[in-house]
Amino acid sequence: MIDTVTIVGRVATDPTHGQTGGGAPVTNFRLASTHRRFDNATQAWIDADTNWFSVAAFRQLGEHAKASLRTGDSVIVTGRLRIRTWESNGKQGTSVDIIAEAIGHDLRWGTTAFLARSRATPSDAGTHGATPEARSADQENDFDTDTGADADDHRELPDLDLSWAEAPAGAAATSATAH
């Protein structure tokens, strides 16, 4: 089952850019989503808990995210949710990851200027000009969310730490831990 979520929050880390083993570009960043509520006793808005997400944006979306996003930007991210447990240096926790399908600035808090980019790479040639449904189906079919690799390339990612995006076999979700 694939759960699609939309999260409104702030970019918490500068986006980092790398490539999968198959050469597909990927951009990673952390997203903080702090819920606010109105406190009747003080008649003021207060911050409640903050949820933390690790976001991965692949291919052209990743390239555009790297060029467009900065720490502190208010954004809206839509993508596939993945919850995984982790263990490192004797510590255990749960990470909530989003494989991004769309990212945009939250225009409630500022303005942005959109600059359309052409799809000039050979890997995009098969989907250029196709309907959005065909492009989405093509992207879904040629990407393995478990390994972060293209369907035709099942090697590990050599220079990019995507350990946060991989769940150990048989792992069960536990309570969320911010890192």
UniProtKB/TrEMBL annotation:
Pfam families per the UniProt record, alphabetical: SSB
Keywords, sorted A to Z: DNA-binding
One of the record's GO molecular function terms: single-stranded DNA binding
GO BP field: DNA replication
DNA-binding in keyword set: yes
Gene Ontology CC terms: nucleoid
Region entry Disordered, spans: 118-179
Compositional bias per record (Low complexity), positions renumbered to this chain: 165-179
Acidic residues compositional bias, start-end: 139-150
Keyword Transmembrane: no
Xref: NCBIfam families: ssb (TIGR00621)
Assembly and oligomerization: Homotetramer.
Descriptive protein name: Single-stranded DNA-binding protein
